[in-house]
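note to self — DONT lose this again. spent like an hour looking for the file last time. sequence + predicted structure for the chain T wanted, 328 res
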Amino acid sequence: MSFDKIAVVGAGAWGVALANVITRAGRSVMLAARAAQSATLIGERRESSRLPGIKLHDQVRVATASADAARHDAILLAVPAQHLRAAITMIAPALADGIPVIACAKGIERGTHKFMTEVIAECAPSALPAILSGPSFATDVARGLPTAVTLAASDDTVAAALAQALGSTTFRPYHTTDVRGVEIGGAAKNVLAIAAGIVSGRGLGASAAAALTTRGFAELFRFGGAFGARPETLTGLSGLGDLILTCESAQSRNFSLGLALGKGQTPQAAQSGKLAEGAFTAPVLLEMAKEKGVEMPIADAVAAILDGTLNVDTAIENLLTRPFKAEG
């Protein structure tokens, strides 16, 4: 099984980083920008405004996203979760049967409650949906710093072959068939990272941050279990690993959003001009958790702060005055 020609749809920071790292792995890469103007600018400057200071590899071909992107051995969708449906719809008619389409977004679609691979399967029934997720900042990946992630597909042979094709000495994809577990880890950790940012912005200290991350992971684990995720996936790179990264670094847009909220900014001001996937995922996560009877008090507090029904201080007080109970 050979994946020599790869298309990356989405020319933001993550798309550029993936295009660079896959090219270094020896593959032929097309970076497909969703807007023609973006494709022209990136093609001329060999750099994206979303990832300043990082030059696009000379061998990466830049084009406008079209049916041409579908005519590759595998396609990576490096677009925000709420835009993934539009991206896959654009290329779906030209996809050959069985072509892997890999979601690189961490979120759940609003309204439908669908995970990213479910959106791919609905819009492109002939494709093989997959997911790439894990503790990775675009700048680190683009610069060639050591990074390990998880790649999941229902077919283990395909997942292993994709990991081999995309991987290199500095970019290490571990493969699994637990698609849902990988998707849940990436989506839930974004919401919890907002909570971690709030704790930091409020100056509650390192002990509170550690408690928040630990209890947040307990919520992620309960949610994952309710939706059939494997424990080893949730405690792996795409679950606990990604949670640790995004709960302690301002490089995370979700953590930065929480930081602004903790420092007193309104939800509207804190989100202005920024894309933090967790802000979209929080209410969806809670709706799905309630359907399964899963208790997620930290995620609940984040959603309430974001929609303005609860202020930060009251949310913190509510969490601190919850009844004492056994750990679990």
